[in-house]
Design a protein that fits this description.
Length: 207
């Protein structure tokens, strides 16, 4: 009997995810529905593999982000929004990984520093792929720094899908070209929303 089961590891770059959400909010007054996005991922792989949707399961999902310490988040009125978003991750069994943000003042300007998150993202994705032996790894990111991660995952004979959503008009520059070229499959959601007018409402909630 043929085994059609496909195991999927999903890894979300929280900084990238937040930028997409901000653009969706500004342009459409919508935010990503995490549950709907995960269903979309399964549907895409089901179609590519020509297997039943029930045979495609996201067995690991992880979210990586820098965030403010509680006092800073409270003073910036971010606590409620953060907890609300975390609730949506918990409801969908997404494991979140945080490192503290730092603010550096230089020449009268404040720069927010998010250090070490990209390295943690890559190490966790690679280590879990070795252990879990995923059939597919889906990376939600646009960062060129993850090009080597994709190469390493492909060396493990894992199909790597890069999932991006460029809400702006300049789609050729928002996702690093080397990252797009290295991935086995690149799914750009905005291209699909152009041909499927119901997809935006399917993947998003109204703000």
């Amino acid at each position: 009997m043929q085994n059609n089961y496909k195991s999927v590891g999903l890894f979300i770059d929280g900084g990238y995810f937040a930028k997409v959400n901000e653009a969706l909010d500004d342009n459409f007054s919508r935010n990503i529905n995490v549950s709907a996005l995960m269903s979309f991922v399964r549907e895409q792989i089901s179609g590519m593999e020509q297997v039943a949707l029930r045979d495609v399961q996201i067995t690991e999902s992880h979210y990586f982000r820098g965030r403010y310490r509680v006092n800073d988040a409270n003073s910036k009125h971010l606590l409620f929004a953060e907890r609300k978003f975390e609730d949506s991750l918990i409801e969908n069994d997404v494991i979140f990984h945080y490192k503290h943000l730092r603010e550096i003042q230089k020449d009268g300007e404040i720069t927010v520093v998010e250090k070490g998150v990209d390295v943690w993202f890559a190490l966790e994705a690679y280590e879990l792929s070795l252990i879990r032996k995923f059939d597919y790894v889906v990376l939600i990111t646009g960062d060129a720094d993850h090009e080597m991660l994709v190469k390493k995952l492909k060396a493990l004979k894992i199909n790597v899908i890069l999932l991006t959503w460029d809400v702006s008009d300049n789609r050729t520059t928002s996702t690093a070209r080397l990252l797009r070229d290295e991935a086995c499959v690149h799914i750009e959601i905005s291209r699909q929303t152009e041909t499927d007018t119901t997809l935006l409402d399917k993947l998003c909630r109204k703000v």
